[in-house]
Specification:
This protein is an alpha/beta fold. It is 41% helix and 11% strand. The chain has helices at 17-25, 41-54, 84-90, 93-110, 138-154, 187-191, 193-200, 227-236, 251-254, 259-269, 283-294, 298-312; strands at 6-8, 30-32, 59-62, 114-115, 161-164, 179-180, 205-208, 211-212, 242-247, 273-275. It is globular, with a radius of gyration of 18 Å.
Length: 314
């Protein structure tokens, strides 16, 4: 059952036979799709059907945020929304709902189950997130993030608010190095507001980031490995959906150990799912070893229940 705690990916334009054997033996909680995994809409649909044949209960995911972060582009004949910041500047929240509802309908038609969006971080245009963020204003981020969630939900697509507890509070890109939040007395009031609103409108999943937030966890642990930050999300914000990590192959995570160790530590911290966004040698052995180290704890059982509830959402 350990595969269900992982979201995996494949590196080529189609899944290899060895990858299909892997997901058949260890059915993952999800498979995340990137631009490298298809040449056109037809090949994408074919790959999704192939994956579903090997692992029928696996959720097919991608992060189609709009604009610069679009996996299926307009040249494929796909209805990508603009950059989130442009949407917030030029469209009402109602029009934002419509843009992402249209996107959700198109994703659903392809066989995609979940969109790892929206970004609800509060950040100016000059930030590392750039136009992936709606605004540097918490209320605008909350309003438009909630519109995205509702638009996708109404189309039958699961959404995911990210990057908890707030990547906009840092200047370092976690793709490269562990990010560190600014020591801001108003951190909880400002950066957590969009996540509170996302929870209020029923977001089924929240993604953390490789960020040290000393004002939330004085131990200096990265959010990816921080039980305190997961407890904040569960107990203070009242979130009972799926918590997933960002890609464990990012520099902000890999600096903290080997993949098996960081995956186990992220899961023990309270994540339900962890992302591994490239193929990894001997991943089957890593999964089996992680399963032995985690054991059949109540936390593991609760995570499996949350993942199953996410899978059953329509």
């Amino acid at each position: 059952m350990i595969g269900k705690r992982f979201v995996l990916s494949f590196d080529n334009i189609r899944p290899s036979e060895s990858f299909l054997r892997l997901i058949e033996k260890y059915p993952p909680g999800g498979i995340i799709i990137f631009e490298r995994n298809f040449s056109d809409i037809d090949s994408l649909e074919k790959n999704i059907k192939t994956i579903k044949s090997a692992a029928p209960e696996t959720l097919i995911m991608l992060d189609e945020e709009g604009g610069i972060k679009s996996r299926i582009r307009r040249e494929h004949g796909f209805p990508n929304p603009p950059d989130p910041r442009k949407t917030a500047e030029n469209a009402t929240a109602g029009e934002c709902w419509e843009l992402y509802n249209i996107l959700g309908v198109a994703l659903k038609k392809l066989g995609i189950d979940m969109n790892l969006a929206p970004v609800v971080d509060i950040a100016p245009e000059s930030h590392i997130l750039g136009n992936r963020a709606f605004s540097d204003n918490a209320e605008i981020c909350a309003r438009y993030g909630s519109a995205v969630i509702r638009g996708l939900t109404d189309a039958g697509i699961r959404s995911c608010a990210k990057h908890f507890p707030g990547l906009g509070s840092a200047e370092i890109d976690p793709h490269i190095e562990t990010a560190v939040a600014r020591d801001d007395a108003d951190f909880e009031i400002e950066h957590l507001l969009p996540f509170r609103e996302a929870i209020a409108v029923g977001v089924p999943a929240i993604m953390t980031t490789h960020l040290i937030a000393n004002n939330l966890d004085g131990s200096g642990k990265v959010a990816t490995f921080s039980p305190a930050i997961i407890r904040l999300l569960r107990d203070k914000l009242g979130f009972d959906g799926v918590v997933l990590s960002d890609d464990l192959l990012m520099g902000g995570a890999t600096r903290h150990g080997e993949l098996e160790d960081i995956a186990v530590n992220a899961l023990k911290a309270g994540h339900d799912l962890v992302l591994v966004c490239s193929e990894v040698p001997k991943i089957g052995e890593i999964l089996e070893s992680a399963e032995r180290r985690l054991g059949e704890t109540e936390q593991h059982k609760l995570s499996l229940m949350r993942i199953e509830a996410l899978r059953r959402k329509t």
